[in-house]
Structure formats: structure tokens, C-alpha cells
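Render this sequence as a predicted structure.
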Amino acid sequence: MGEPFEDMFKESKIFSNREVLSPHYMPHNLIFRDRQIQEIAKFLTPSLRGDRGRNIFVYGKTGTGKTSCVKNVIERVRNLPVSKARISYINCRIYNSRYRVLQKIVSDYLPLYAKRGFGMVDIYEKIIGWIEEDGKVLVVALDEIDVVKDLDDLVYTLTRANSDIKSGGITILGISNNVSFKENLDPRSLSTLYENELVFPPYNSNELAQILKERVESGFRKGVVDQAAINLASALAAKDSGDARLALKILTKAGEITEEKGGEMVGPDQVGEAARFAEEDIAYELINTLPEHQKLIVYAIALLSLQGSRYKRLSDGGDTYLFSGDIYDKYVAIANSLHREPKSSRWYRKYMVDLDMQGIIVSYESGKGVRGHTKLVKLSYLPEKIKDTIEKTLAKEAEL
């Protein structure tokens, strides 16, 4: 009975430090991102001096190093004795409303007030008073800013606060996977933004190979990972998205497969087997991080794929496609059932383009003769798993 548990504590012959292989691990040296780090630091310089600088928005696909670079700059800034800035890093996946964001700021710098149940106005005034004490600048780093439910209210509050602050100010540092998220803002909120923008490009195959090589040296036993395995994992991730997290996940999974089978070397065969699992895991993680209405659209596609209302494109091996109009109708019904205001058809079309670019759906124009001229859509992943994933997320959000 004890043998399986004893095996769990045996020293791994494949891995030496699993933490280094985690997507949450922060390497001290972020290779191929020197320019982006310097740009972020340059944009923050006025705030560090105590001046009201521009707001900063950092964009890029998942796994391009946005969060790591921002955190790297934050850690360096915190060690500068002359800085007049205070930085509050906030994960908007957790702190997903204006009130929660302001509460997090208070928790970071005014902990005595954090748990006293103050209302919005009281919290706001506490923050303003704290900034004015010595004319400091508060930099609010909002990771995944686009998932904040009342983003208009948050942006308006943070930017308009500079009109109320007599000495010092607030700078927003927003991080997002969605380059067009600002287009969703109310003109009132958009007009208050005065910002610098920085877009992170995807990593190419050679860059990913070098990133993996550095992690392999610390995370795997010496000599157990073949260079061909590193090259293949890098090529697969570069072809798909240029996502360093995907490349790392593929190689880690390949190591796990090798260990489970009692092997001693991680090679291309193990990487090929691992890629199928890793890509699927990343896809479901990505779906979980989608903005609310994009998630509801994907949910509508999954339900329709399982329920019917479909069109079979006979010339494509029997693949099942859905009418874009049917998807929109289903999305509207779902949004209404959840007491959400559905987005217009114009925004729906923009969201579909985003989902296509991220590889979550595949679409094509039907041409004439199929309900006139329409777009046909199918999911890139199993609708059953996507349905279950989103339903779990919706249930958690309902609990919150």
C-alpha cells in the first residue's frame, strides 16, 4: 500500500528544479526583451521623478513577456532610493472591479484602512490624501486591464483623480492581450487618457529555443534533454503563436511523459506527443482569460456545436460549421439570461476577428448561395471541453 506513495518522494531522474519551468517563474534575465524593458522604464521616468506622466499601455499575445517585463521594471524601481513613485501591481483577473482595485491600493499602502468596510468615496479620499501627503505619484499597474467589469468607471476615476490631487498624481500602466480593448471604452473615459503604447511581438523559433535552453539548464537534469527536442518544441510554439509559455509547457510535458514511461532522455518523439496535450491546455487557459462577452460568444458556439443549428460544408471532409448569424442570436440569448447587456452586432464582428486571430475559432466567407453571403464558423477545440470550462468559470464568477 505504501509503495505508490514512496515512489512519489523519489528523486526525479529528469527534473532538477520544477519551479524554474513554471510559467509563473520570474527569470532575472529576460532575454530578447531589453528594448521593451527600456521603453517601459523610459515611459515611467516622469512618474519616478514625481511628475504627472502619460499613462502607459502594454499589448501583446499571451506568452510574449508583457507581465514579466513590467514586473522586472517594478522590482528595479522599488530599489531606487530617489524615486517619488509608489507602484501597486494589480491582477485584474482577481481584482476585477473599480472597488476591488481601489481596495487593493489601500491594502498595499494603507493597510490600517483595508478591512474597515469603507465605501467607494471614503476609499477614494483616503488614496487622494495619501498621495498629497508628500506629492508622490501612484503608478497603478493593471494586468489584464480589459477584464475589469466596470472599466469605464475605473479609468474615469483614476484619470480624473489628477484633477482633485493638488500635489502628486496617478499614472495607469495597463497590460492587455487585446490591442483594441480601448475601443470599448465610453468616449468620456477615452477622452481622459493620454498614453504611450508598447506592443510586444511574438517570439520567433530561434528566440524560443534560446529561452528554453536557459530554462533546461536550471530545470532539467544535465544531459537529459536532446537539443532536437528543444528545437522542435520551439518550432511548434513559434508556428502556433510565438508563445513562450506554450514552448515551456510542451517541453515540461515531454519530460513528464519520459519520466512516466521510465525513459532517460527527452527527445523529439516525446515532444511530439506532449504538444497535443500542451496546446489543448493552453487553449483552455486562454478561453478562461477572455473578456466576458468574448467568452459568452465562445460558449454560444460550443452550445450550438453540440445542439445543432449547423451547416455541413461537404467539400471540407464533413467539417461542421455554424452560421455567424445563428451564433450571434445564441450569444444574445445567453447574455440576456445572465442579465448582461449584449454587445451590438458591430462589436460581435470585431470579437469574432479577435477569436479567429487567437486560433480559438476558424472561419471563412461562404460566398453566394448559402443564405446569401455569410461567415461560417467552427471551434478549433472540442466543444464539450470548452462548454465545461466556461460553465465552471461562470459558476465561480456567480459565487464571487
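Summary. The longest strand covers residues 169-176. The longest helix spans residues 268-288.
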